[in-house]
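#struct-pred

JT: dropping the chains for the assembly here, can someone run the whole complex?
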Amino acid sequence: MALPDSPRTAVSNPPTQGFIENLGPGDVIKRSATTRLPPPQRELTPVAKLIDVSKCIGCKACQSACVEWNDTHPAIEDNVGVYTNPHDLTSEMFTLMRFAEWDNPDTGNLEWLIRKDGCMHCAEPGCLEACPSPGAIVQYSNGIVDFNHDNCIGCGYCIKGCPFDIPRVSKTDHKAYKCTLCSDRVAVGQGPACAKACPTKAITFGTKEDMKALAAERVVDLKSRGYENAGLYDPEGVGGTHVMYVLHHADKPHIYSDLADKPKVSPVVHAWKGVTKTAGLAAVSLAAVAALAHGLFARANKVTAEDDAHAREFLDGNEPGGRP
Amino acid sequence: MSDPEAIERGDEILPGNPPRVVRYRGAARVNHWVTAAAMVLLILSGVAMFWPPAFFLTALLGGGQTARFLHPWIGVTLVVSFALLARQFWRGNLWNRTDVDWVAHMGDLVRGHEEKMPEVDKFNAGQKFIFWAMALLILAMLASGAVIWEEYFGGMTSIPIQREALLVHWLGASLIILVLILHIYAAVWVRGSFDAMIRGWVSAGWAWRHHRLWFRRLAARAAHRGDAPV
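RK: done, full complex below.
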């Protein structure tokens, strides 16, 4: 039997059989600020993390596991009366449980909606499109979008490119950080730390195909329980994502702490890195070449001996006769 | 027209053989070249952080992180330096009727018939265009640049605004480079212009040919003061 190229589940223990370590340079399919990328050496099975919001109990085990595995140190903040802690994603907190209270107008129920926020690992990543530094952001053939901090210059363009407001630039080392989908674990056959820590299996991990099948089962179950708008969040606007949600109200993602209803990379970002870039560079090059050519071949505008003579005549108090 | 107040400080005709005309005093030249140096560094680092094939240019400023850090500070230096330059130059760059006439005769200038042009004061309409275009574009770059200065102002504006600022910053940059090409080109084509900005003075013949009205005003002032005849 062929060895798997990626973990099929998050909860299992590390593989004891040989596992083909991956996510090396040969698995990169997109690289920031790089046009001529060598073709990948192989095609890895697409993976995905499925977050079933309806199963989440808000325990924050995922956040703890994330901090533990990535060895980050989020600042201790003040309690302002909400469970969301810290108050926002930071360069030290790659995932965040966002708590929202929603008054369901159809049932009159107050619903507590808890969404684990973090990088969605878009198939068409806006961060990667915006990044100016070659190789600071890469996308692997299994779908993981990863930041390579050695190449990060800290400009924050990824923040502007992201349709989900995810990356954060550290005030300490001035590099951008976000969820890696535990690429360093996945590469050696283990699922993401958050998925492994989740006590209710609200977070599961596997091939994207399996995760979609699992989501479909969950949607059927939720519909049978009266959540008629239950569905999978795998937004097409960004080519699909490798972190997906099962939502009990998939018709209105925004009620889950402002999850984007129809996310897509902003047209402004496309214009900036697309048509205006080409047009601007072309105009500048053309002007430079034209100026150089004219400067080399056209007759220069030189002061003549006549000009000098007229100037002297004028200074001597005589208006030179007529124009030179 | 012969209002001596309207003459920039330091501009004067130096008698001698050959006679010379002081065009830019030291402060103006220092301001100009500090601005120019900052502009070159900004363009190189800016293009490096926008156009991937030029990314290697960040090495000029000490690598990507350092270039990212320095670029906005060089921008601040340029804004301050240009403001000091503009304080000296803005009056001479006010638009007037002669400029309309000058623009109408631009074809003559390009064809080498400068004698058909109206007499020009310290700055011609082309120079005025470059001055005001630079002033406006630098303001636009300052405003859009502040919005995307992640280190200090990253959280102060919404992300959609920051996206717009990125676009404005690039469009402004490409326009500035175009204006700069025009500026350098004109300075090279009109021989003797570089000397004006490097040594500070031009020959009397240069002043007569290109800025006769300015030359006349300087002479009139000298006569008014009762300076010794040249």
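JT: nice. The longest strand of chain B covers residues 12-14. The longest helix of chain B spans residues 159-189.
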